[in-house]
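Re: weekly structure request thread

Next one in the queue (280 aa):
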Amino acid sequence: MAHALDTDPEPRPESVPTAPNPPHDADLRPVPRSSLTAETVACLQRWIVARGDAGPTRLPSERDLAQRLGVSRIVVREAVGRLTARGLLEVRPGVGTFVAPVRDTSVTEPLRLYLSRRDLRTDDLFGLRLALEPAIAAAAAGRADPDAVARLHPAIERIDAVAEAIDPSDPETLEAFAWSDLAFHQELARASGNPLFDLLLAPLIDRLLEVRRDGARVPGSVATANDGHRAVLRAIEAGDADAAAAAMRAHLLEVRAMLPPDPDPDPDPEPDPDDAEEAP
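Done, posted below.
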């Protein structure tokens, strides 16, 4: 195989065209000897990042990479395995190893799993939401895209429909409200025009749904929450960023007040006398 990386669309297994070395190939040079695998991973990762989201790109063969990087094929194989585990590369049997496409889940899924294993307090969640969602509402108002704003109305109407049938003892209606309410906030994040807002909210979905199910059990909470949504939407339609941020903040504080307080944190355990150091 030629030393170049294929920059054309994904080739067929039986025919792999080659191309002149792209400028980014300058990053593929012999690595220091201190930690071969780690340095090889770092070298390949720099090359992958430099390519951005340029479409399917196949790596050179294991032998070719070993020669160009000045390491053994075993080191290359280990480095490719680590980068595959990180979601930066993907192995396609019978075809080769390719730079993986940029996926939101490569960012959101690890954080989602992290949060699912932590004892996240409701105050922690709302602290983050209060820092983030008023800015989302302000951005949506400042942008005031008619199509994006129009998509917020059906979301509110769906919550109205759910509110009429909500039954605190019926898990299905609680679930319907949780997803409908979440959909409004996700649509609002998209209306901001900033894809990072939606990306930051995505790992919180499981916890946000749990909070919404709990909140829907409080009498009148669903209608109250949707009134807050309407206030936000009115400010966005008026193009008033400050009013939109204020309305979102008021909405979040009102929702938090309807939820039970977090339990007091456990006091620090008494120290074990046997672990104490002896006095000099």
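The chain has a mean pLDDT of 84. The first strand starts at residue 89 and ends at 92.
Next request, please.
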